[in-house]
Amino acid sequence: MLAERRNRAALRASSLGSDGAAKQVIAAGRAAEAERRRWQFDLDEWKAPAGVDELLFLWNKLPRRSIVDIYFPGANVEEMLNYRNLRHAPGTVKIIDSHTLRLVVSGATYVPVPPFWGNHLSGLVTITLPTGTKAGQKYTVDVVHVRSDTHRVLGGFQLNIQVGKAAKILPAERRLQAIFAERLKLTPRSSRWFPILEREAGFVRQRVAGLAQLAKGSPKEG
User: Fold this and answer.
1) Domain 38-163, what fold?
2) pTM for this one?
């Protein structure tokens, strides 16, 4: 009888221990999923039901003389600048045209994205490094999507820049040029991504032409 009671107590303890371990596993899984979603763009989260979404640019060690443009074909960037002016932000964001902003590489830069352009907004970031940049140098720029009124991080990505010699990277850039040309043919003009692909294809063409010119004098490259 005593042995039977001990067995029942042991079974109850084992059951409690299993439940506790299972709860810990579930809690750990939920925490991991929350952390994964914290750094993942969710298309449904892009629209802001309240407050203003912002893109936060962290420049890290990017040279200050770099030229950084961000192109929003579906937005009027004057409205973005108005939001910055309302909070007396520094003059580190300038208007190039109605759809393009130029960002000054200094500290952290916030770009407001007001919620008047439908559910989704496409954009293109281009970075031109200054003259004198050497092959082998690496730079990163972190971009974080935040919601200002709730201080939530909705997503983020990192731009990685690897500087190489023209003769070495030219073949890959030519393949990229062909890929963009084909994607542009297959993308309907009504797509919000068409102007992005069109502009990026133009940039790649210019880059290939410049690299080809540099490759001719590759012994002189830095």
Assistant:
1) Lipoxygenase-1 (2.60.60)
2) 0.70
